[in-house]
TrEMBL record:
<dbReference type="GO" id="GO:0016805">
    <property type="term" value="F:dipeptidase activity"/>
</dbReference>
<comment type="similarity">
    <text>Belongs to the peptidase C69 family.</text>
</comment>
<protein>
    <recommendedName>
        <fullName>Dipeptidase</fullName>
        <ecNumber>3.4.-.-</ecNumber>
    </recommendedName>
</protein>
<keyword id="KW-0224">Dipeptidase</keyword>
<dbReference type="Pfam" id="PF03577">
    <property type="entry name" value="Peptidase_C69"/>
</dbReference>
<dbReference type="InterPro" id="IPR005322">
    <property type="entry name" value="Peptidase_C69"/>
</dbReference>
<dbReference type="InterPro" id="IPR047804">
    <property type="entry name" value="C69_dipept_A-like"/>
</dbReference>
<keyword id="KW-0645">Protease</keyword>
<keyword id="KW-0378">Hydrolase</keyword>
Length: 474
């Protein structure tokens, strides 16, 4: 079976009643095995009357594409030799998805329904689903139909949302999966481990599942529990690797949003669904995605012992290629309701940039990704900043946090100004206006990033160890 190359992600979902502004969020850090994994970000145009077959460069999956497809935002790999990996986006019907959260099924279930070599994999999921769906619920069904026809190459979690609902779908084996509608008053932190728990097969409004999954489990004696039907227990894993690589990230995210609850970072019983102790802001989601066990002894760049600093895998990594937060505001209140926040480089050190997805373009700086460093490229600009900040973290941390905080405030002001200007605006006029705003936003953030980078490099020249101060008494 092929080795997944994009398999170290962390996902967050926040229901609208759990959010400070009453809207749905889905978010994820897309992580890889190497630090230098350039990503593009642009708008895929709508298509009509097409007659084309999609073939995956990764595993040669071949699928005849529908004739018509919606416009959508896309974040593919810059080098697509191993696959497209479009990962995340919002389409013109204001339906969004993020794919995937790589997970692992246990050997017992895989024995009876193994993964399919040339089935649907992460590289293809967004490409084959997002342009063709009209709701989050429809997204689950659409992907489920693809899995039924072609099988799944990997075990993956997939997030879908629209203004009304959030759905999380876990593909476990070659053909079996479940999905849950995230309650409006709950949030979820998912970290490379099957997380969905009890399934109510009498509640098709809030759960979906693959055909025959109950029979599959029963006939093969796969349910370890005395009572109930817990997907995590039946299909998931609980290993030493999980307790050092996966569960601590869930623990930390829940620690941030439910600080009064004491939990063990290595527990295999952390709940999948949580109600937060306070309403969650977009800045809270950004903080978690950018976190590295901040203010704990496990922080890799903190003051703990070397053993503690290396004990757990953090959420934000040097190999985070693309961190995104998808936000759908109430279309009855604002015209520019769909926003995709994008952070490139290491999220701990770089800002989240808000882009309006009802647009025909993001910005050239996000689609231009040469093989070597060029500060005209947003990807390379933020990668450079990340390296410089981390290289002198104790000296640069405060200035870098001030830089991020100022841009976070600027983003709120900019979105509010756009909301005011777009009252009553519709159709292509709205799309053209938001496209221009995307260019303005990119320019502002790029300019500020270059200024911050220049300040850091200038200060850094005084920090060389190759210096010598003459003793005046010599």
């Amino acid at each position: 079976m092929r080795q997944q190359t994009h398999m170290a992600c962390t996902s967050i979902m926040v229901g609208k009643k759990a959010a400070m502004n009453g809207v749905n969020y889905i978010a994820r850090n897309e992580d890889n095995f190497v630090a230098n994994w350039p990503k593009r970000f642009f708008v895929q145009p709508a298509v009509s009357g097409r007659h084309e077959t999609y073939t995956s460069p990764y595993n040669k999956l071949s699928v005849e594409l529908p004739e018509n497809g919606y416009r959508y935002t896309s974040s593919p790999d810059a080098n697509q030799d191993e696959g497209w990996y479009e990962e995340d986006g919002i389409n013109e019907k204001n339906v969004g998805m993020s794919a995937t959260e790589s997970v692992t099924a246990n050997e017992k279930v895989l024995a009876y329904d193994p993964l399919i070599e040339n089935g649907v994999a992460e590289d293809s999921i967004t490409t084959l689903v997002l342009p063709y769906i009209n709701s989050a619920r429809e997204g689950v069904k659409y992907l489920g139909d693809l899995i039924a026809k072609y099988g799944s190459t990997e075990s993956n979690g997939v997030e879908f949302f629209d203004e009304d609902e959030i759905w999380y779908m876990e593909l476990a084996t070659g053909h079996h999966w479940v999905a849950i509608r995230i309650p409006d008053d709950c949030y979820v932190i998912a970290a490379n481990q099957i997380g969905i728990e009890n399934i109510d097969f009498n509640d098709s409004e809030n759960y979906m599942w693959s055909d025959g999954i109950q029979k599959f489990v029963s006939e093969n004696d796969l349910n370890p529990d005395l009572t109930g039907w817990n997907f995590r227990h039946i299909f998931g894993t609980s290993t030493k690797q999980d307790r050092h690589y996966n569960t601590p990230r869930v623990w930390y995210g829940q620690k941030v949003l439910n600080p009064s609850i004491e939990q063990d970072p290595e527990s295999d019983a952390l709940p999948f669904l949580r109600k937060p102790e306070k309403k969650i802001s977009v800045e809270d989601i950004q903080y978690i995605l950018a976190s590295h066990y901040n203010e704990t002894k496990f922080d890799p760049i903190g003051g703990g012992s070397e053993d503690d600093k290396r004990r757990y895998r953090a959420i934000s990594l040097s190999r985070t290629a693309n961190s995104h937060i998808l936000q759908l505001r109430d279309s009855k209140k604002v015209a520019a309701n769909a926003i995709e926040w994008k952070a490139l480089g290491i999220p701990s050190f770089t800002p989240y940039v808000p882009f309006f997805t009802n647009a025909d373009d993001i910005d050239e700086s996000y689609s231009y990704v040469p093989e070597k460093l060029d500060l005209k490229s947003a990807y390379w600009l933020y990668e450079s900043m990340s390296m410089i900040v981390e290289s002198h973290y104790s000296e640069f941390a405060t200035a870098n946090l001030d830089y991020q905080k100022e841009l976070a405030s600027w983003s709120r002001r900019k979105i509010a100004a756009v909301d005011k200007e777009t009252v009553g605006m519709t159709g292509q006029k709205l799309t053209d206006y938001l496209t221009e705003q995307n260019h303005q936003i990119a320019k502002h953030f790029n300019d500020e990033a270059k200024n911050h980078l220049a300040d850091l490099v200038t200060k850094g020249t005084e920090m060389s160890k190759l210096t010598f101060k003459m003793d005046p008494n010599l």
